[in-house]
Write a structure and sequence with these properties.
Blueprint lengths: L6 E9 L3 E3 L10 H11 L3 E5 H6 L8 E5 L11 E3 L2 H11 L3 E4 L3 H7 L5 E7 L7 E2 L9 E9 L9 E8 L7
Parallel strand pairs: 1-6, 1-7, 3-4, 3-6, 4-5
Antiparallel strand pairs: 2-8, 7-10, 9-10
Amino acid sequence: MNHPEQMVSMISAMTHDRVIGAMGGGIPWHLPRDVSHFRKYTDNKHMLLGRKTFDEMSGWFSTQTPLVLTSQQDYRPGIGARVGSVAEAIEFVQTSGAGELVVSGGAQVYASALPFADRLVLTIVDATVEGVAYFPDFRATATWETVSEGHFAADQDNRFAMTFITLDRVRDAGNT
């Protein structure tokens, strides 16, 4: 159970069939609107990422504190810290006094963190692409309530239409 003042959120862009990663690594689209949304949400927050995702985002972190989830005991990220589990990342954030841990990928990290998630901040990309990495089937694991939703048409800068949706986990009164 999470500390009452702390939230675990997960942020991801995905297709309707939950594709998040392309063959060869990275995401299968470039959408400046989504990048801006991602940066705004993660600003000044601790981010949990797998080692490969962290490496793909090299040079990206400015105000965020990356926590790199890896089993490699001797791994030392150039920025942030190494953690060995989602629970360790949550404890790290609690100890630091931060209010939120934002899980930012990849697929294995999302799957490991989903049981801890209080909020999902998703960009649903209106595209059909070949994928090798998928966001976990979150609707099969819990009940989620839509907190906000906004649709954006494709334009000259954003090849695909997208929907930003924020979902909060519904917890029964005995399981808060």
